[in-house]
C-alpha cells in the first residue's frame, strides 16, 4: 500500500504499527490509560474480571456451586420467615386463643412467649383488662342514643358508660360477630327499659345509683344469654339532662319546684315553732292548774280539819266554845269598823259630832307621824 513503511509497516508519516513503539503519524503513539487492565501495570481494573472472581469465590463457599446454593438460601429464608411467623408474644393485659385450621384450641395462651405452627395454626389476641364503652356522649356521633322517654312522659338525655372485662376469650371471639356493637345495643335497650318505668326526677337527681344497679343486672343477664364472655363491672350514669330545645323551660320548672320545697320547709319551720310555743303554754297552764288544784284541796282539807277540831272542842265544852266563837266572830266583824267608846253612861249626850271627832283624831295622827 502507498503508505507502507519499509521499516516495518508504519503509517504514512513514518509511524510503524509493529515496531513496538506504537507511534502515531507524527511519531508518537497514543497515551494509554494507567494501571492496565489484564496484566499491565498502568491500566484500570477490568469489571468483568472482578465479576468473574466474585463468582469463583461464591462457588467455593456455597455447596453444590452457585445454582445449588441459591436453593439453599431460598430454603433458609423461608424457614426463617416461618419461624418468625410461628412465634408470638402475649402481653400481661392480653390472652391468646390459638386456632388449628380455624378450630380454636381448648387451652388459653397466658402472658409470655408462645409458639404455633403457622400457617396451619393462627392466634387471636384479646384484651382482658377493664374497658369502657360510652353511650350517648355529648358531641359524639352517638349523642342521640341517650334520648329516652321517662315514665312520666318526659324526654331525658342520659349519658352513661359501660365498664366491662372479658372473662371468656373464646366466647368473646367466636360467639358474637360484633361484641362491642352488641353490648352497645343491649345497654341502650336496658337503660331505656329502666328509665321508661321511672319518673324523670329519679334519673336527674334522686335514684341514679339504683337505676345503674338495675341496668347492670339486665345487661349482664342478656350478655350471658348470648354467651358473650363479657362481665359487666358497672354502669355509671355520667349526666342526665333534658334536650337542648326544652332546657330553659325545664330549668324554670326546676326552679319552681325548688321554690316550692323552700316554701314548704319554711312553713314547716314556722308551724313547728308555733306548735312548740303552744305546747309550752299548754304545759305551763297545766302546771298552774295542778298547783291551784293542790292549793284548793289543801286549803279545803285544812278548813275541814280545823272545823273538825273546833267541833271536837265544842262537844267537850259547848258554852265555852260558843262564847269563844261569838267573840272571834265579833272581832272579825268589828275589827275594821269605826268605833267610838264613851265612858260613863249617866248623862245624855244630845249631840255629839262623832264624824268630826274621828276626822280630827286622824289628822292628829298623820301630823304626829310626819
Describe this structure in words.
The radius of gyration is 65 Å and the shape is rod-shaped. α4 crosses α6 (208-226) and α7 (247-316) packs across α8. It is of the alpha+beta class and 370 residues long. Residues 1-41 have low confidence and may be disordered. A hairpin with a 5-residue loop joins β7 (147-149) and β8. Among the domains are: 46-128, no CATH class; 131-241, Tetrahydropterin Synthase, Chain A. Helix content is 51%, strand content 16%. Belongs to the band 7/mec-2 family. HflK subfamily. It is a single-pass membrane protein. It holds the Pfam family Band_7. HflC and HflK could encode or regulate a protease.
Q: Per the principal axes of the C-alpha atoms, what is the gross shape?
A: rod-shaped
CATH architecture of the domain at 131-241: 2-Layer Sandwich
Uncertain spans, ≥5 residues at pLDDT below 50? 1-41
Largest sheet: 5 strands, antiparallel
> CATH fold name of the domain at 131-241, please?
Tetrahydropterin Synthase, Chain A
How many runs of DSSP E, i.e. beta strands? 10
Count of helical segments?
9
What is the overall pLDDT average?
Answer: 75
Taking the alpha carbons of the first and last residues, their distance comes to 196 Å
| Percent of sequence in beta strands | 15-25%
CATH class of the domain at 131-241: Alpha Beta
**Assigned CATH superfamily of the domain at 131-241:** Band 7 domain
Task: Report helical residue fraction.
Answer: 40-55%
